[in-house]
UniProtKB/TrEMBL annotation:
Domain of life: Bacteria
Short name of one Pfam family: MFS_1
InterPro entries hit by this protein: MFS, MFS_dom, MFS_trans_sf
Gene Ontology cellular-component annotations: plasma membrane
Record protein name field: MFS transporter
GO molecular function: transmembrane transporter activity
Statement: the UniProt record of this protein carries the keyword Membrane: yes
UniProt keyword annotation of tRNA-binding present: no
Species this protein is from: Cupriavidus cauae
UniProt topology in membrane: Multi-pass membrane protein
Positions of the Major facilitator superfamily (MFS) profile domain: 15-450
Location in the cell: Cell membrane
Record keywords: Cell membrane, Membrane, Transmembrane, Transmembrane helix, Transport
Transmembrane segments: 14-37, 49-69, 81-98, 110-131, 143-162, 169-189, 201-222, 229-245, 265-291, 303-321, 327-350, 402-420, 426-446
Length: 463
């Protein structure tokens, strides 16, 4: 059973290991297949343009399923939804490895995406029950560390596996890990109290449509032939989203957590998170082009020069998590995004005469800023919600991250379509502006309700 003080040792260590096993697989499979697309296209005899759906099917499915499955976590219990998601992910991975044609592989990726959404939708909610309140920042810091490292090393892990095995092993390797995690989860994960209420199927379907239209719309903005349809899709997403919000308003525990947005601390944390992940993807997509075309670096040099960013995130994420247990998230997150903004501006000012050291310390500053921001902001988001709405907060957090990353990628694609390869410097400038907006949103939490109370709002809400 769960406890207000988290799980005892050593169950806490086994529980967090189980959660991280699932999280690593779910996040990794969002990027690991990218590098294998040429091999998949050749072996299955498909058009390379169609093969991109091996990636898109997973990402789109995860994004549209996060909110419905997080609501299901509130209803059934987070452990149950996590285990169902893990089992679904296992079956999907096995079917991916056994696929003999593209339609079968894409269908298996959809199934895998449903499982990945089940894992990610309740991930932070489970961390909340694994750690005691005084150490919640530490747990969320480790969680951010896992997400950050896994996101960064996806292509490298894929390349390593493909260097000695076929693309099928990118998916088959999940099977033994998922089996171990399922076995551990039976006794290690905390049992949280279910909330007896009906699942809101109409809202679940409409939320999936709204998010799906948004994702496809922003993705289509970077393609000349799809731009008009993309704008239409975004308008439809906006109108349907407004209708959905009206439907959800007044419900005790809405599937789309509009009730949580009544909490100022939660709303500002979500806004800050969206800005930060949009900034991250703007920079990550633009930097390889910037370093190669604008600064004249080789492919090998480019990979090495980007390394300080994820390395500093890995160093800072657990440290900032511990700091967030003692200091206001608004200050830590605002300072982090200000550092990220400064690092991006300094990167955009480089030229071909700049040394590698000039690039490296600027990359390290960006990673330091992003790592300082992430854990405190996530802690503030989950801490500003009552325990019985942890699933809604967890789903909103994961959805915000994916929507921010999708928007950032789409903006870079649009800039390249409008300007050409020289748009990489412009993209870094845009990323710096978005980071500055995020810093301002974060610091806005200092006004009104005392920051410490807002971020530890669970106790106040319960009282």
């Amino acid at each position: 059973m769960h406890s207000d003080q988290g799980l005892p040792h050593p169950q806490r260590q086994w529980a967090i290991l189980t959660v991280f096993c699932g999280l690593i697989m779910a996040v990794l499979d969002g990027s690991i297949a990218n590098i294998a697309l040429p091999s998949i296209s050749r072996q299955l005899g498909t058009d390379p343009g169609h093969t991109i759906w091996v990636v898109n099917a997973y990402q789109l499915t995860v994004t549209v399923c996060l909110l419905p499955l997080s609501s299901l976590g509130d209803i059934l219990g987070y452990k149950r939804v996590y285990r169902i998601g893990l089992a679904t992910f296992l079956v999907g991975s096995l079917l991916c490895a056994l696929s003999v044609n593209l339609p079968m592989l894409v269908a298996a990726r959809v199934l895998q995406g449903i499982g990945g959404a089940g894992i990610m939708s309740v991930n932070t909610a489970l961390v909340r029950y694994i750690y005691p309140p005084t150490k919640l920042g530490r747990g969320i810091g480790l969680n951010a560390l896992v997400v950050g490292i896994t996101t960064g090393i996806g292509p490298s892990v894929g390349a390593l596996i493909l260097s000695f095995a076929s693309w099928q092993w990118l998916f088959a390797i999940n099977v033994p890990v998922a089996v171990i995690a399922l076995s551990l989860s039976r006794w290690a994960l905390p049992v949280t109290p279910p909330q007896p209420r009906a699942f809101d199927y109409p809202s679940a379907l409409l939320s999936a449509v709204v998010i799906g239209l948004f994702v496809l719309g922003v993705d289509g903005l970077g393609h000349d032939g799809l731009r008009r349809a993309a704008v239409g899709g975004l308008i439809a997403a906006l109108l349907l989203g407004w209708w959905l919000a009206r439907m959800e308003r007044g419900k005790a525990a809405p599937l789309v957590p509009v009730d949580l947005f009544a909490n100022r601390a939660f709303t500002l944390a979500v806004g800050t998170s969206f800005c930060s992940f949009m900034t991250q993807m703007l920079a990550f997509v633009a930097l390889p082009f910037y370093l190669e075309y604008q600064l004249g670096r080789s492919l090998q040099e480019t990979g090495l020069l980007i390394t300080p960013w994820p390395l500093m995130v890995a160093v800072m994420a657990p440290l900032s998590g511990r700091l967030s247990d003692r200091f206001p998230a608004s200050v830590l997150a605002g300072l982090g995004l200000a550092l990220l903004c400064t690092g991006l501006v300094l990167l955009a000012m480089l030229d071909r005469g700049s040394s590698s050291i000039d690039v490296l310390w600027r990359m390290a500053m960006c990673g330091l800023g992003f790592g300082l921001f992430q854990s405190p902001n996530n802690r503030a988001m989950i801490g500003a919600t009552p325990p019985h709405r942890s699933g809604g907060a967890s789903g909103a957090q994961a959805t915000t991250r994916l929507l921010g990353q999708t928007t950032g990628t789409a903006v870079v694609a649009l800039l390249f379509a409008l300007i050409g390869t020289s748009a990489s410097r412009t993209a870094l400038g845009v990323a710096a502006c978005v980071a500055a907006v995020g810093a301002a949103v974060s610091l806005a939490r200092l006004r009104g309700v005392p920051d410490r109370l807002a971020e530890r709002g669970t106790t106040a809400l319960e009282e």
